[in-house]
Design goal:
CATH superfamily of the largest domain: START domain
Transmembrane segments: 614-640
Protein name: START domain-containing protein
Helix content: 25-40%
Keywords: Membrane, Transmembrane, Transmembrane helix
Organism: Durusdinium trenchii
Region (Disordered): 665-689
Strand content: 25-35%
Length: 689
């Protein structure tokens, strides 16, 4: 796809350099103050040779910004220009600083022409110079949005550009160029342009009228409905999703995890497996009131950080092992890398009071660096999700941060919890409530330890081939490695592999960016690596390995490590997914850099197919008519002769029939049995007496 900068450079070269040299142009034609010119030479567009057309005219009683606003509102063009029957915006491509537009043009008696164009713009409100550019160059991404309509033919406009400037003394000066390939065979594009020049000029007249109506709206001199991202002059950078919420949550987690770990704990809680949980406590404001803030640390033996992290982070599975969690609802990713979680907890009795269940509406974010996992849970104050039941009380989770790191053969967990459970009077009985919360934390730690060990056991059993492979929370990869923008949901690993060259080894990223690399950049990894949707784990794990083989020459040692062997279970696939996600970003950067600096197709060249000139077509038509007349003449003579022969045969037959009739009626004839007459009669001859 051509970037905004490249298209604007093409437009400026065409109008400021080529058009400025009037020796490049044929003599002008003019109507209603609108000057029409054709280039002397044809230029290449979509494989054919077409002329460049130019319009130049003034618009009084309007400002440059008015003309700009009319041209940028492509979806409204059918309201003031009769040429298109339909114009629609297909979407916005912020990474290209462009919009996509599709248009339909009646071309009777020929079929409707359909065009897919990029739209870019430049606006300088100080110098009052505006540019609007359309182009069909490299428009595969637009065409993939919807197929060419049945009965229509796709046409190209390789470069359509408008330069809009303030005219000395008031008003607007407009210069426009078009490079259209309508595929008008057998006519040439030059013939069509010459025959239809007044139609082209009529467009300028319509634009003039509509711009004057726009001026009458009284908009401010710097007002435009064009989004700001289309007009910024900026370096060509890869567009990334807005991860500001994720970054804020993880920053809050890191800050809270820098707690009092080196200080003596307030208490040590004994866990079910004999391990100890150290607890630190202080008071802090949460949800508008004071609530205890707890720091805790304990070790999960014989379970690695990945197993422990999955036990903590897989919220959709937590209700199976957390005795306090009554129900949970995953509300999805409304922000990149941040998942919504809705939980309902059973609360303990305090001094014989049975507290109502507590509900929490939260954001969840996570990250993984080397062997360290961090997860953050924090309340979403602006949620519109309905409660599980009317009797539940909403709790505020200010901080629930978790850090998981290796510790010998196990893992060490540090957690920070700052929860305002809104327990009313119980909060004022501080020592009882604090004791209750610490007890609940100890129970949770013991249950988490058991869940992590179960994951380890399932993984070991699965590798032995006798147990069902572990199914985990498939969305955790999206938490750890948020997807880039512009995924193609129809792409699969198999489709990426099908585009790759059949070679045993691959070099680093090629300068021409092969199609498989572009496809890899758009591959929805979270979907492709969701093992719960795999039909055959072994074969699809092999596909993942094959995908890595394509990109391994660009992988770091850390990224190669998960691919030491084929994945045995879902957690292996998760680690491989993180590595592939990192590589995917690297490839996207290279593809973007290539697209920023790549050369567009040559639309200034003289290589392409030429249609027949109009005079030659007239000569061919005359020759065809003459040949047709000659054939008709020959056929007429032949038919005349055939008719005369047929009439002669009919006359002879009638005469013979009449003669036979007369012989029979004048007098009878007696024939001897073996006479000559008998022999003649047997041959069908007529005897005459």
């Amino acid at each position: 796809m051509p970037q905004r900068k490249a298209l604007l450079e093409l437009a400026r070269d065409r109008l400021l350099n080529f058009y400025a040299q009037k020796s490049n142009l044929e003599d002008p034609k003019e109507t209603d103050g609108i000057v029409f010119r054709l280039s002397k030479d044809d230029k290449s567009c979509a494989g054919d040779m077409v002329p460049l057309t130019f319009l130049e005219f003034d618009i009084p009683n309007a400002r440059p910004v008015d003309v700009f606003n009319v041209l940028m509102a492509a979806e409204n063009e059918t309201q003031w220009d009769s040429a298109p029957s339909e114009m629609r915006v297909l979407g916005e491509w912020k990474k290209y600083q462009a919009r996509g537009v599709v248009g339909f043009f009646d071309a009777k008696p020929l079929s409707t022409r359909e065009v897919y164009e990029w739209q870019v713009a430049s606006a300088n409100f100080t110098s009052q110079e505006f540019w609007v550019v359309y182009s069909t160059l490299q428009n595969d991404e637009l065409r993939s949005k919807e197929p060419v309509r049945a009965g229509a033919m796709e046409m190209q406009n390789c470069l359509c550009a408008y330069r809009i400037t303030l005219k000395a003394g008031g008003g607007v000066h407009v210069v426009n160029t078009q490079q259209v390939n309508e595929h008008p065979f057998p006519l040439s594009a030059r013939t069509v342009a010459n025959l239809g020049w007044q139609t082209s000029a009529a467009f300028g007249s319509h634009l003039r009228t509509q711009s004057q109506k726009q001026e009458q709206k009284g908009w401010a001199a710097n007002k435009t409905e064009v989004p700001a991202w289309m007009l910024k002059d900026k370096d060509c950078v890869l567009e990334k999703p807005d991860e500001s919420l994720r970054e804020a949550l993880l920053s809050k987690a890191e800050s809270s995890l820098s707690g009092p770990w080196e200080e003596p704990p307030k208490t040590v809680q004994k866990l079910a497996d004999g391990q100890e949980m150290k607890v630190w406590q202080q008071a802090a404001t949460c949800g508008g009131s004071q609530a205890p803030l707890f720091h805790a640390e304990f070790v999960v033996p014989d379970a690695g950080p990945q197993e422990v992290f999955n036990a903590v982070a897989a919220k959709s599975r937590e209700a199976k092992w957390n005795s306090r969690l009554k129900q949970v609802n995953m509300t999805g990713f409304t922000n990149p890398g941040v998942r919504g979680v809705h939980e309902e907890f059973a609360t303990p009795s305090v001094l014989g009071w049975k507290l109502a269940p507590r509900e929490a509406f939260e954001w969840q974010a996570a990250q993984h660096n080397s062997s360290r996992y961090v997860m953050m849970i924090s309340s979403d104050p602006d949620t519109t999700i309905p409660s599980f039941n009317d009797g539940a009380v909403r709790a505020t989770q200010c901080v629930a941060a978790y850090e998981v790191v290796p510790d010998g053969k196990g893992s060490r967990i540090r957690l920070v919890q700052h929860l305002n459970a809104n327990v009313g009077v119980a909060e004022h009985i501080q020592f009882l409530w604090e004791k209750t919360v610490i007890s609940m934390l100890g129970t949770w730690a013991s249950e988490l330890t058991e869940e992590a060990r179960n994951i380890v056991a399932d993984r070991n059993c699965g590798k032995g081939g006798s147990c069902k492979l572990l199914a985990y929370d498939a969305e955790l990869l999206e938490l750890l490695s948020p997807s880039p923008l512009h995924r193609n949901s129809s792409l699969t690993i198999a489709s990426v592999l099908s585009l790759a060259p059949k070679q045993a080894a691959f070099r680093r990223l090629a300068a021409d960016v092969p199609q498989w690399q572009r496809a890899f950049g758009k591959l929805p990894l979270t979907k492709a690596l969701n093992v719960t949707e795999w039909e055959n784990f072994e074969s699809q794990a092999d596909e993942v390995m094959s995908l890595f083989r394509l990109v391994e020459h660009n992988a770091t040692d850390e990224e190669k490590e998960p691919f030491a062997s084929r994945a045995h279970d879902a957690l292996d696939v998760q680690r491989q997914g993180e590595a592939l996600a990192s590589l995917q970003w690297r490839y996207l950067e290279v593809v973007n850099l290539h697209d920023c600096n790549s050369n567009l197709p040559d639309i200034n060249g003289d290589h392409g197919h030429r249609a027949l000139p109009f005079a030659v077509l007239i000569g061919i038509a005359v020759a065809f008519v003459a040949l047709l007349l000659a054939c008709l003449g020959c056929c007429g003579v032949k038919l005349y002769r055939m008719r005369r022969n047929r009439q002669a045969r009919q006359a002879a037959s009638l005469l013979l029939s009449a003669a036979s009739s007369c012989a029979a009626s004048d007098r009878p004839v007696t024939v001897a049995p073996n006479s000559e007459a008998s022999t003649s009669a047997s041959r069908g001859e007529v005897l005459r007496g």
